[in-house]
Amino acid sequence: APGRVWGALWFRALLRDYSSSIRDAAGAARRRPWLSAAAVTGLAVTAGLARSVPDGGSLESAAVAAAAALSPIPPGSRSPRAERRVLRLLRLRERGRLRVRSLGLLSVAAAEPDSTDTALYRARCPHLRPRPWERGALLDVGFAGRWWLLEAALRDPDVNEEEFGHLPEPLRRLRPAELRSERNERLHRERLRAVVLSEADIGGEEPLEIRGSV
């Protein structure tokens, strides 16, 4: 049939084009091996990053895990910055306003003004919806399988940055030169050392040991 003949000719021409392209690429790789290796490595890294882009479910799981990690810490020692960020993510998740959009190699999480279940006209009409860059504040950036802003907030979860907020500014921070922990520890150890008195010290009597008070 004419259709089969034309189909066979088209398929043969397609194979010829692909084979010539492969031969040209192999020849270019032999002429410039370092450039070809760099190109292949770049493609592999890009593909790996694209596959590891986190999604909305991973952000919700990370927020729940962060809340579980903060719960054993006493409120007075808990980082307010980490607590506020985690509570905000959980609150937006419960209200259905947490949105994550993939941009290829990274994901962006933002707070939507309305939930997906909202039946308001301004939330349903495409002409009244806010533009993507007007929908809400940036919450987090996902890259290489991690949510970086959330991890940065949880870096020191048991350090209360606002504990000494009522103090004057010079007393809120200590410079490295003002830290004397090693000297204090050495003095504390020397305080607990036994004091040995010689016969001359006690007027000819036998040596006597006096322990430092604890």
Chain oligomer state: single chain
| pLDDT averaged residue by residue | 79
Low-confidence stretches: none
Order of helices and strands: HHHHEEHEEHHHEE
Question: Can you count the beta strands?
Answer: 6
* Secondary structure: helix percent: 40-55%
Walk across the major sheet and give the strand order: 1-2-3-4
Number of domains: 3
Radius of gyration from CA coordinates: 34 Å
Shape: flat
Q: Sheet bearing the most strands, described?
A: 4 strands, antiparallel
Count helical runs: 8
Strand portion, in percent?
5-15%
InterPro entries: TIMM29
GO cellular component, one term: TIM22 mitochondrial import inner membrane insertion complex
GO biological process, one term: protein insertion into mitochondrial inner membrane
Protein name: Translocase of inner mitochondrial membrane 29
Give keywords:
214 residues; alpha+beta; 4-stranded antiparallel β-sheet; two-stranded antiparallel sheet; 8 helices; flat; TIMM29; Translocase of inner mitochondrial membrane 29
Description:
With 214 residues, the chain is α+β, with helices and mostly antiparallel strands. The chain folds into three domains: 2-49; 56-153, no CATH class; 174-210, no CATH class. It contains eight helices and six strands. It has helices spanning 2-31, 33-51, 56-70, 80-94, 121-124, 148-153, 169-172, 181-191; strands spanning 98-102, 107-111, 138-143, 146-147, 195-197, 208-210. It has a four-stranded antiparallel sheet. Strands 5-6 form a two-stranded antiparallel ribbon. A hairpin with a 4-residue loop joins strand 1 and strand 2. 10% of the residues are buried. The model has no long low-confidence stretch (mean pLDDT 79). One of its GO terms (cellular component) is TIM22 mitochondrial import inner membrane insertion complex. One of its GO terms (biological process) is protein insertion into mitochondrial inner membrane. It comes from Taeniopygia guttata (Zebra finch).
